[in-house]
Amino acid sequence: MNNLKIFELIVVLIIAITCNDEVKEKQEKLSRKELYKYGFRLKRNEQVEGVKRILMMEDELKRSAMVKILLDKIFKVVEKAKTLVEESGYVPGDEFPEDQKYLDALGNVFENVALFGDLLLRCPDITHKLYDKNTEWRVTMNWGVVFSNESGLFDDAEKFLNLVAQELEIIPRDPNYINPYKEATIKATQKKKEAEENKKRKEIENKKKKKTLKNNKKGPRLGGSSGEL
Q1: Distance CA 188, CA 202 (A)
Q2: Of 143, 141, 145, 142, which is closest to residue 153 (Cα–Cα)?
Q3: How confident is the model at residue 155 (pLDDT cuts 50, 70, 90)?
Q4: Which one of 87, 165, 216, 221 has the minimum C-beta count within 10 Å?
């Protein structure tokens, strides 16, 4: 190996070591909350994709059963996590606690509130049917949504958590609020679409009728030269 190649190798190694030190330094500067927030974004992508797969299930009974299993699990986890979070004395918006037990509890709240929100907004009819009649669940989730919103963890908090809060009527619904995944909304949208299609079809038919009547009013035309007697 000549001197030039040795020099190039040393430069590459120095750059690699320097970059690694910079990454470590950046990680050390990041707060526990910021580090968790990065992983939370990845987790959210997985959750959304999972709920989309449930939505694509053609068998309604299987879809309902899957949502029920998830809701039972979600609320067991959130109720337990809520007790630990309150025990820790954590205030939403503060730096995350050092104790791993309390840090895990916070994560369980945020991740399961988010997953519940996805189910509620994308599978509203099934979720409402199971959720609305359970008082304990309603109390727990009302706390979870407000707590999550105050944490500042959700990048899309204004949109996502606001929609969840409106769907649960924790806050008043906007006059223009609709959930496009609700069966009633789907039927209304389909009905509106059919009405618009019928209107367009009638307009086309009326144009054709008017054109036909206009041509008929003109009467027969005589063509060619006049004949001889």
Answers
A1: 21
A2: 145
A3: confident
A4: 221
**Beta carbons of 129 and 101 less than 8 angstroms apart:** no
- Compute the C-alpha angle 180/183/188, nearest 5°: 75
Q: Which secondary-structure segment (H or E) carries 37?
A: helix 32-55
CA–CA distance, 160 with 58 (Å, rounded to integer): 26
Q: Is 219 left (phi over 0), alpha (psi -120 to 50) or beta?
A: left
Instruction: Share the mean pLDDT of the chain.
Output: 79
Kindly report, residue by residue over 40-77, the tens digit of the pLDDT. 988 888 999 999 999 899 898 999 999 999 999 999 99
The CA-based diameter of the chain, rounded to the nearest angstrom, is 118
pTM: 0.69
Q: Which amino acid is at 81?
A: A
- Report the distance separating Cα 94 and Cα 174, nearest Å: 31
pLDDT band for position 159 (cuts 50, 70, 90): confident
- Cβ neighbours for 54, distance < 8 A, ≥ 6 positions apart: 63, 66, 67, 119, 122, 123
